[in-house]
């Protein structure tokens, strides 16, 4: 996410808009980078060395240790230095063996401790889900979990049905259970924070989509799966992973426990925020089965090899061959031909190769794992900082693309849809779109309207999207088949679904397995609502600022107010209402900024402040709108001039827009669950 640059000193209006913009931008970039999945736009740019001539020409290099090490030595040090990332680990496995495992940079920058791929632990974020899903498949193989049964049979609390249909384990694994986003307690630095069982049971997010219809990435769903493993196995989740995954594979430098066991704490890489010299504290992931693991590169190699070798590693069996194949090859096809969800893994296909994997992010660590199934090759990379402008996201994508282009190249797709048809198809996507991974019933729903991707057309009627390539430049798209586009000179694809002659949803390869974009409801469309809300805020703020100025001018020149007593009361009440609405908007923006800037506040610690903002907001938004009406009536009935009459209408409209925004996006409710 590009850094937003602001000037805070120009006007109070700029200050208000800045607060709102910072809060929303920070919320988006942080929320999409937590234990979740990758962002919908590539961070960046990240400087990387130019591709070798052979890569650019589509000539395959031999994938052996010598060539891989030469390539990595030319790629990684420069990329880390240019991106401001202290350290990284890269592991490549092939044919059941570790081809290369390399540490780059520092696990501890201050003490200049190098990264050791055998012993240095990195947080792997949502890549942890692959261990949870593997545990689920072990239970399926043992006959203790039915992938297509109502999960309530395994729980001691109830997940309500939607449209009369329950949630199944298969839907949890493919992120189509329909849950809205849950954010509270996702991450903290407090080791005394509630365990994941508490996070699960204190609030069940609403199911906002019918089961099986809409991919919507869910940490809650993955955590449910981990809890089910715990219940049906009779072992605590951490113990189960120790006994059934880590020990059989010999993963002695891997754990899902938080905080780290004493024996491993000295091996943990420090995590850094770009621009800060001191490392941050160890992150505690609230929905632990969705992202709590720490592991060394070589331990992750063992896990990759086991999955590539039909569920075995050096004689130890992780899964049966049939269960492994089922996990890797049970695709849910919702938006062809884009990448699809398997059972826990998602496709990251590239150069016509069958590739499955997962990405993972905490605030500090950023990870990617990819398995080239037919080539029997695995690629793993992890960084201990997001780097400059979130460069780690782009860098891990660049590594996959350069790796595939170097060792498994493919000719460029030259198919094209004729220009006239392509222009018509592109025009059908123009406008604002909603992300399926959203909160709808909580105050975080208010963020949705500010981050809706907007699609436009350029002068040649080509698609213009907000999605960027690894170099930070906007992607340019060409239509290769009806309603399927490919990025010019890149690997990304974009596809749309058409129903009754209208595009109803679209996505891109990077996120298509677990996230799609759909048209927002008319009343929630940012195309009109964002400008209207900003205009309303400016009008209300100007009203507040001119109120004392007008009073001082009248007093200085001894000009009496030409109003009746009821009119004066209505006038003052309207100004108090404007002030209250502005303060409430600023309070909400400041609260959201604080929550997402310091995730430890996204916990019970902020409950009191949240309730206070909610109650004050309800009074300000509802009461403020009501207070504008008497002023409107008295102005239009009295001797007021046209400017005053017009402004009274502006105030009512401004308060109405804010009230609509607050009502539509769940700001008019008091709840500490989100």
Please tell me about this protein's structure:
With 674 residues, the chain is an alpha+beta fold. 39% of the residues lie in helices and 15% in strands. It contains 17 helices and 23 strands. The strands form five sheets. It has a nine-stranded antiparallel β-sheet with strand order 15-17-18-19-20-21-22-23-16. A seven-stranded antiparallel β-sheet has the order 3-2-1-14-13-12-11, with helices on both faces. A three-stranded antiparallel β-sheet has the order 4-8-6. Mean pLDDT is 90; it is low at 1-41.
Topology:
Blueprint lengths: L11 H20 L21 H4 L8 H19 L3 E8 L2 E12 L4 E2 L7 E2 L5 H13 L27 H5 L13 E2 L7 H7 L16 H15 L3 H13 L4 E2 L6 H4 L18 E2 L8 E2 L1 H12 L3 E2 L2 E2 L3 H8 L17 E2 L7 E7 L4 E7 L4 E7 L7 H17 L11 H9 L3 E2 L1 E2 L18 E4 L5 E6 L5 E8 L2 E4 L5 E7 L2 E7 L8 E2 L7 H32 L7 H33 L9 H31 L4 H23 L10
Antiparallel strand pairs: 1-2, 1-14, 2-3, 4-8, 5-7, 6-8, 9-10, 11-12, 12-13, 13-14, 15-17, 16-23, 17-18, 18-19, 19-20, 20-21, 21-22, 22-23
Number of helices: 17
Please provide the count of β strands.
23
Shape: globular
Structural class call reads alpha+beta
* Strand fraction: 5-15%
| Biggest sheet, spatial arrangement of strands | 15-17-18-19-20-21-22-23-16
- How many strands, which pairing sense, and closed or not: the largest β-sheet? 9 strands, antiparallel
What is the terminal separation in angstroms?
24 Å
